[in-house]
Amino acid sequence: MYPQMYGQQQLAKPPRGRVLVTETRHAVLVRNGVATRALPPGRHRLRRGRDRLWYESATPQVLIIPSQEVLTADGITVRATVGAVVTVTDPLTAMRAGDWRGRLYLDIQLALRLNVTSASLEDLVANRAGLDTPLLEAARESAGPLGVEVGSLALRDLVVPGEQRRLLAEVVAARLAGQASLERARAETAALRSLANAASMVRDNPALYQLRLLQEIASSEGNTFVVGTEPLPGIDD
């Protein structure tokens, strides 16, 4: 009945009934086809013909979700790649889960699609780092029952088609131009409002005009001022 596959790991027959388990890998004892327990680091004596071992790395492993084509909420196709660092913390559970890599891969892929399809392209580009948190939470929720821990996860690439990049750049440029025009209009409105207030003050207080004229004369050099006796338009005698 051997060799037998559990997930992606092949059951190994220990040589001469003895085995050395190092700190860098997990070993699960399979006796008569039944997974019994995880062996701690050290030397172990096994029963010939009855025992097999299932090995798994005890060190952090990199799990890559290759480039995926996903539609955004506004119907634009983007390509996204996700990388995660995972560690098997419960080898017996991981073994019994079967292909834990494939299951975790699928769950992260589905979480990626769910988060991308719920946002527009502009929101994704502006808040690319914001996708890491919901993806990490989804991955950790899926990894727990598999005996695996997700240490970190990040969206490595978010590729936008060339034509869509050009259109997005034009949208951003148009928005910036609109904001600049709005600020200029606000400044002009403020200046006109200031002039209107000044004219109103002069109309209500003619002496202010005379005072302002004297200030200009005092601060000016080399100019000739002709002061008439006619009142200013809009100012009563």
Short descriptors:
about 240 residues; Tetrahydropterin Synthase, Chain A; three-stranded antiparallel β-sheet; disordered N terminus
Give me the CATH superfamily of the largest domain.
Band 7 domain
Spans of 5+ residues with little confidence (pLDDT < 50)? 1-8
Total count of strands: 10
Query: What is the 3D form?
Result: rod-shaped
Please describe the biggest sheet, giving its number of strands, its sense, and whether it closes into a barrel: 3 strands, antiparallel
- Count of helical stretches: 6
Give the helix level as a range of percent: 40-55%
Question: Topology, please?
Answer:
Layout: E1 5-6, E2 9-10, E3 18-21, E4 25-31, E5 34-39, E6 42-45, E7 51-57, E8 61-71, E9 77-88, H1 91-96, H2 100-117, H3 121-126, H4 132-143, E10 148-159, H5 162-204, H6 206-219
Antiparallel strand pairs: 1-2, 3-6, 4-5, 4-7, 8-9, 9-10
Helix pairs in contact: 2-4, 5-6
Please describe what this structure looks like.
The protein has about 240 residues and is α+β, with helices and mostly antiparallel strands. It has three domains: about 55 residues, no CATH class; about 100 residues, Tetrahydropterin Synthase, Chain A (2-Layer Sandwich), CATH 3.30.479.30; about 55 residues. It contains six helices and ten strands; from the N terminus they run βββββββββααααβαα. The strands form four sheets. Strands 5-4-7 form a three-stranded antiparallel beta sheet. Strands 8-9-10 form a three-stranded antiparallel beta sheet, with helices on one face. The N terminus is likely disordered.
